[in-house]
């Protein structure tokens, strides 16, 4: 193979691909990226077997073919090149790069050993605006579980499609994030997928300037999802399992509600969290007479007291939460005013923006702490 | 010679509840969260004749004592009460080794046993006066004997073991009262015909080493009441671990998991005893070539449950990728310990 391209294009593509490489892989070829040149384009691919990222860019292809090079090493080299033009020629065992007066030979592994993309034909898919998708993913994935020991299902994010409505859900069993939007074009039928949250984050990060994300099902057992956005394709292995019935844990209605400045509440909670202690940190919220009083205390740090003006409807309430959970949720509430809804001190509470974003609706459900 | 006092508040949680809610006084009270899987955290002395004791499932306690008054725990109240008690404790001691909210060793410094007894009496009275709580105390030349004495003093008593009388005091007690003797060791000792402390006290160095390994003579000394461990002021526990060295190197994943399961159960007991929960669970594996592998994981919620510790440790063990390599030693460890974290109610 042989091609000539801009150093910037290839550095960007290899840089993005190298980020998904598993540094601890025991299979040598998985530490490499695959470069394939054909018909005026070069495609760079990396995989950790759960997630495959492919990014392509325009190049002058003199001889089509492919080569694999160590991802980290090659990305490091490319990142240090000046802006200019680069020529790469590859053999099964070597990739030779010329750029101005710099000449490098990288040891390669045979391209045919690189794991192929799953076949099995593409099932009918759906599309979503890239802006919506990024917002939705960022709204929910933080709420997924980070504990491998509790299983892959809770580490995943549920994508649920029904006709024109798309819902993303993530939960770690204590708090839940849900985001709903309307698709521009209705999907014919209904579908549910559990996607590793880490992979969704990778998709959201690699959307680039694309306008739309096209999603389709791949694999002979329909166990992979492909996200296409502009010159990037990400293929993700779906999590096999049953997602918890999340609708059951979202109370249909609440009897107490406050509306409060999201920024002021977040500021108060961040300060109170410092006093509440690092991990099992408890903040108490006391809603009374159009006021929200936040308190926290610890043996080592002292006491915190914060007072906020709120619009209250329904009875007063005192309820305790893990400060970390509340802060993480409020970090994502995309609205000047946040609404908090309650049923009782030991029942789930909901947090949502007062004015939903035009892109989609956020809803967060959080269980309190027993004092 | 330094004199050690072990102090322990009687039925602490229940006593705080009875102090704060006069209607509960004289009633059989159990402190427990409501709920199906709840266990009794503390039973008041009125509940104990019914056979209700701590760590018992709540439903069982209610079967034994239907009139039992179940009160949910209020750790803020316990912390406040404990702080009051420890303020009094610190006024009299040279060093304080706090074991939990309701238990501590005090080093009184170079005093006579008589002076120590006066101090302990005065402390009991001061705690009662300032906090309304009953404190039992044991006074002795070492930590273990002081602790056994305060157990004997319960409720609301004081037991003083005169210098030189330690061995005689311990002699007739069951071996299970000695430090480091759990149910497993107790069973083993019973098989050897050893049931009372004096039988261990009588062992020669050689025989003790034969029965209990290298630490045997020191264990025999403990049975004689010889205990020179100092009261350690900074006794903040940072981690708790349980390790096992195999007689023959072990390769079977199933056996290793079985050992980890037992270690998780032991850690649960030790965490509960100290009223701690752990955010971090890890495993340590020493291979036949003496190289050591460690893996750990952090939980979203701190735990003191064996099943959760086991699940996380088993996950760490899988991640260590032993693939049938020969293992000399395996250990399970819990760390990032917190005291009485508020309980996060689950959503799912």
What does the secondary structure layout of this molecule look like, with pairings?
The complex is a heterodimer of chains A (about 375) and B (about 350).
Chain A (H helix, E strand, L loop, with lengths): L1 E5 H12 L13 E7 L2 E7 L3 E8 L1 E4 L1 E6 H9 L5 E7 L2 E6 L2 E6 L18 E4 H11 L11 H4 E7 L2 E7 L3 E8 L7 E7 H9 L6 E7 L5 E6 L2 E6 L18 E6 H15 L5 E7 L2 E8 L3 E8 L1 E3 L3 E6 H8 L6 E6 L6 E5 L7 E6 L2 E2 L1
Helix pairs in contact in A: 1-2, 3-5, 6-7
Chain B lengths: L1 E8 L2 H9 L8 E3 L10 E2 L14 H7 L4 E3 L3 H18 L2 E6 L2 E8 L2 H19 L3 E6 L2 H11 L4 E3 L5 H6 L11 H9 L5 H5 L3 H8 L3 H8 L15 E12 L2 H21 L2 E12 L4 E12 L2 H15 L6 E13 L3 E2 L4
Helix pairs in contact in B: 3-4, 9-10, 11-12
Q: How would you describe what is shown here?
A:
- The complex is a heterodimer of chains A (371) and B (348).
- Chain A contains seven helices and 27 strands.
- In chain A, a hairpin with a 2-residue loop joins strand 8 (94-99) and strand 9.
- The longest helix of chain A has 15 residues, at 262-276.
- By secondary structure, chain A is α+β, with helices and mostly antiparallel strands.
- With 348 residues, chain B is an alpha+beta fold.
- Among the domains of chain B are: 171-223, 5' to 3' exonuclease, C-terminal subdomain (DNA polymerase, domain 1), CATH 1.10.150.20; 239-339, Dna Ligase, domain 1 (2-Layer Sandwich), CATH 3.30.1490.
- Chain B is 39% helix and 26% strand.
- In chain B, strand 5 (95-100) and strand 6 (103-110) form a beta hairpin.
- In chain B, helix 3 (75-92) packs antiparallel against helix 4, helix 9 (205-212) crosses helix 10 (216-223) and helix 11 (253-273) packs antiparallel against helix 12.
- Chain B is globular, with a radius of gyration of 22 Å.
- The A-B interface holds A 145-150, 171-176, 244, 249, 279-280, 282, 299, 320, 322, 346, 348, 365-371 and B 33, 74-76, 79, 83, 277, 279, 297-302, 311-312, 314-315, 319, 336, 338, 341-348.
- Strand 27 of chain A pairs antiparallel with strand 13 of chain B, so a sheet runs across the interface.
